[in-house]
């Protein structure tokens, strides 16, 4: 029997440990009294408050959660934090700051609890426009919890809003380390922030350093479209036209859906070299790769029209139209070309047939994160502040293959 005593003792100690652990999970000693953590959640006010919160009925949620804390005769940290956040959501930033600051005065907060309350306070400061205090608060969160990604992201955004691109880049590098450098989003943002540093160096007149910075941004992420444009612009100003063309052609090769941003630059540069045919070849190559690339067709049409090759230009425009029937630039160029052709009734009728189901609007670019709309392509959303999230929202083509059913243009 004595042989089993150590085993029985171990089992008994394990049982006692489980009991103590469960008790600690449920109860917490605060101000000399034990608080039942579950009791708060069992009040109807707590559940009603959560339901109102889910339904986005902020006022009712505040009322119920406030009653939950008074009925349960406790000052549960999580409920107080939620209440403070709700005050902030209502625009009562001063009240939210006061509540969260009072929570930070509690002597029994764990390090993690202190970090969470500090995060709420930092968000209060940011919402209220107290930028310096928000920066200090987020930095304190990171000191308490170095892997707090949400605090780091907010720090990055604050630095971006202040055009402190180097600090924003440093913080984003820390965020990338948390994810092990495996998130494509991190590389994209690092590249765009590096590009902004290059832009700042251009403004300061340091063209050589700016050029190196733009090249670094491209090395980080080859799809950083503005870096190619900026690098080419720097090289052109330095009189290195061949290198400028190389940068812009790299954009068309690596990010073909953004190639149109370099069209005017390349067309001008090819003309300066006495090789305008290279622009035609570029557009034709892009169209071969993606027959729905209406921007390449439009650029080619303008180029052909400038050479008085109006019928060829119109053919490209009518091919482009079904892929983007609401593109005002296409319609404007078509009318210019039709005018140059004397408004041939047959050609006008063909155009009208294509546009029969077209829809027009003026905000074709939309942010994929927050649905913010813009008339132009933006690299950073002014509403959610995310990078490279704008896409061109298109409607369905007027017809699947309208050009196949229509008469070809007579040469």
User: The biggest beta sheet, please?
Assistant: 3 strands, antiparallel
Q: In percent terms, what proportion of residues is strand? A: under 5%
CATH class of the domain at 183-270: Mainly Alpha
Strand tally is: 5
> In DSSP terms, counting alpha (H) and pi (I) runs of 4 or more, how many helices?
20
Task: Give me the CATH superfamily of the domain at 183-270.
Answer: Tetratricopeptide repeat domain
Secondary-structure element series: HEEHHHHHHHHHHHHHHHHHHHEEE
State Rg: 31 Å
Q: Are there runs of 5+ residues with pLDDT below 50, and where?
A: 22-27, 29-34, 396-411
Could you please say which CATH topology of the domain at 183-270 applies here? Answer: Serine Threonine Protein Phosphatase 5, Tetratricopeptide repeat
Structural class category: mainly alpha
Mass-distribution shape: elongated
Tell me which CATH architecture of the domain at 183-270 applies here.
Answer: Alpha Horseshoe
User: Roughly how much helix do the residues carry, as a percent range?
Assistant: 55-70%
Distance between the termini: 109 Å
Oligomer: single chain
Query: What is the averaged pLDDT score?
Result: 82
Strand line-up of the largest beta sheet: 4-3-5
């Amino acid at each position: 029997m004595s042989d089993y005593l150590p085993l029985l003792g171990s089992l008994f100690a394990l049982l006692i440990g489980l009991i103590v652990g469960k008790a600690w999970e449920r109860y917490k000693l605060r101000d000399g009294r034990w608080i039942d953590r579950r009791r708060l959640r069992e009040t109807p006010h707590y559940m009603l408050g959560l339901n109102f919160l889910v339904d986005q009925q902020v006022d009712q949620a505040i009322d119920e959660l406030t009653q939950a804390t008074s009925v349960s005769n406790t000052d549960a940290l999580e409920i107080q934090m939620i209440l403070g956040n709700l005050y902030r959501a209502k625009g009562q930033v001063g009240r939210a700051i006061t509540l969260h600051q009072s929570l930070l005065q509690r002597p029994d907060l764990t390090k993690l609890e202190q970090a969470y309350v500090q995060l709420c306070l930092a968000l209060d400061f940011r919402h209220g426009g107290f930028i310096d205090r928000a920066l200090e608060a987020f930095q304190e969160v990171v000191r308490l919890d170095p892997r707090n990604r949400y605090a780091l992201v907010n720090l990055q955004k604050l630095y971006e809003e202040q055009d402190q691109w180097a600090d924003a880049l440093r913080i984003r590098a820390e965020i990338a380390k948390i994810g092990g450098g495996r998130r494509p989003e991190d590389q994209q943002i690092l590249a765009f922030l590096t590009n902004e540093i290059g832009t700042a160096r251009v403004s300061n007149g340091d063209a050589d350093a700016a050029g190196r910075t733009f090249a670094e941004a491209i090395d980080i992420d080859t799809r950083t479209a503005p870096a190619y444009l900026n690098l080419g612009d720097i090289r052109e100003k330095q009189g290195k036209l061949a290198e400028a063309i190389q940068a812009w052609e790299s954009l068309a090769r690596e990010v073909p859906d953004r190639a149109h941003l370099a069209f005017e630059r390349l067309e001008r540069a090819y003309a300066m070299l006495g090789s305008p045919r290279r622009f035609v070849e570029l557009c034709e190559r892009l169209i071969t790769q993606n027959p729905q690339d209406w921007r390449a067709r439009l650029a080619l049409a303008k180029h052909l029209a400038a050479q008085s090759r109006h019928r060829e230009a119109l053919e490209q425009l009518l091919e482009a139209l079904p892929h983007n029937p609401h593109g005002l630039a296409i319609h404007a160029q078509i009318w210019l070309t039709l005018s140059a052709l004397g408004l041939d009734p047959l050609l006008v009728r063909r155009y009208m047939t294509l546009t029969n189901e077209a829809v027009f609007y003026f905000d074709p670019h939309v942010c994929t994160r927050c649905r913010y709309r813009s008339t132009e392509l933006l690299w950073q959303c002014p509403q959610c502040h995310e990078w490279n999230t704008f896409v061109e929202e298109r409607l369905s083509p007027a017809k699947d293959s309208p050009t196949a059913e229509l008469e070809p243009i007579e040469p």
